[in-house]
Amino acid sequence: QTTRRFQFNVEWKKVTRLCTTKQLLTVNGQYPGPTIAVHEGDRVEIKVKNRIAHNTTLHWHGLRQLRTGWADGPAYITQCPIRGGHSYTYKFSVINQRGTLLWHAHYAWQRASVYGALIIYPRMPYPFSAQIQAEIPVILGEWWNGDPDEVERIMMLTGAGPDSSNGYTINGMPGPLYPCSNRDTFIQTVEYGRTYMLRIINAALANELFFAIAKHKLTVVEVDAVYTKPFTTTSIMIAPGQTTTVLMTANQVPDSTGMFAMAARPYLTSVFPFNNSTTISFLRYKNARNRRGKPPNLSSLKLYNLPAMEDTAFATKFSGNIKSLASPKYPCDVPKTIDKRVITTISLNLEDCPAKKTCLGYRGKRFFASMNNQSFVRPSISILESYYKNLTTTSFSSDFPEKPPNAFDYTGGDPLSQNMNTEFGTKLIVVPYGTSLEIVLQDTSFLNLENHPIHVHGHNFFIVGSGFGNFNKATDPKRYNLVDPPERNTVAVPSGGWAAIRIKADNPGVWFIHCHLEQHTSWGLATGFIVLNGQEPSQRLLPPPQDLPSC
Ligand code: C2O
């Protein structure tokens, strides 16, 4: 087993985008952060040095962390934060996973700029036959002129929605539709006739995105580090926390510019629907006439294939096209039967907080978010630690409600009264090792038009069903896909609909479940589940490392 070692210094770096120069939180001064490239089966050790005056943690999003929950990263869930001046080495093995993932900070809103690609090269050859000329990371993100942590603080203080970012980025570059950004444009050179692998990552804080390349077709071959049945599309939809690997053949004849635009913009945005929300980069054909690589005239940029804003029909069709490969070499291990089903609402709440109500100390009308009316409160000590050490001052309880407290009807005329009863706490689901767990995520659609990207730590899951309206316990399970459902770590639950996911709970430890729209996590759209140790030594959580930070 090869051990690959990385050193990550969390540090400030002066960076300029959109005519604004500011101290940006980075890893090793890079924005986006360094790529972690490893091979299936490797041991990985990432020494993180915190060189700032604030706490930090890092998370290897989608990496299973079998028995090594101590290295997962979400602050106060699996570890206390790394304090300023301190270090912590994340140690884990890459077992039976391959493809594109991402890593990001998991403290406050630091992941706004602290993120990067995590690439796992497969042990066996790719299951698709194309000759790949080069791999191109395409990391979608957001740029904030201000300090994102301050945006979160003000949002919690006022109870209103957060300020949005100032622009979207491809590999840290906003591109020419934004002010002062002509030179801050990502350009990738390609050769005619060659096939490229694009590793597309949505590291944005707050938006699902469409991504497309003018005139070029994209063939999806893997999502969330799991191979899929290949399918071809003109654009993709990708939620924060999701990754999508596509093959693209450079088979178009360029015009005199030699360039084709690659573009991303939100599925939904309330601000400046065109220019200020579309990030552009370019494919530059080598040997095309424009040898100096001068960016084309912006008027030629109508030429990308992006769906219209809020094109739900496209989004639904696209996610419906994603199927597990389910081949002899890469079988689909979806649990055919379940031991336990949890039905939970995922809601935004406009909460009235009179003096007699907890509301985390906040007063007045304000936003919160909840699952089964439980708004998740992050404790002040690590849940994994208090669970492992059996601390009497536990930071959590094991009584997450298994069904919505009120009979729920999202089509009902009075969503307000059904959603004004938020309770605050740290309630988790507890299951024995090996449980086949089904979680039905029911969006209430109240105040929310986006699809909530629900992310599960420590496990992949199978999306066995989804639909619009209310989940029907009697009829919907009969239509589940138990043959080749997509296997992922983040599911975009349709707005005004539901998604049913199945998890084989085979990773002992404490695992966060939350919405990957960052403001929703701040408002409490989260829970967690504990997988108890199994009988065999190989089914037990490993002891904590020596250098685990303390609170
Ligand atoms: Cu990508 Cu809990 O996060």
Oligomer: single chain
Q: Which ions, cofactors or small ligands are bound in this entry?
A: CU-O-CU linkage
Count up the domains. 3
Spatially, the strands of the biggest sheet line up as 10-9-12-17-14-15
Shape: globular
Helix content: under 10%
**Looking at CATH, which topology of the largest domain would you report?**
Immunoglobulin-like
- What structural category characterises the helix and strand content? mainly beta
Alpha-carbon distance between the two ends: 33 Å
Q: What's the CATH architecture name of the largest domain?
A: Sandwich
For the residues shown, what is the average pLDDT? Answer: 91
Return residue spans where pLDDT drops below 50 for at least 5 consecutive residues: 271-275
How many beta strands in the DSSP annotation? 32
Q: What proportion strand? A: 35-45%
What's the CATH H-level superfamily name of the largest domain?
Cupredoxins -  blue copper proteins
> What is the CATH top level name of the largest domain?
Mainly Beta
- Major beta-sheet overview: 6 strands, mixed
Q: How many DSSP helices?
A: 5
The gyration radius over C-alpha positions equals 23 Å
Pfam family, one: Cu-oxidase_2
Subcellular location: Secreted
Domain Plastocyanin-like: 9-123, 136-288, 399-533
Main location: secreted
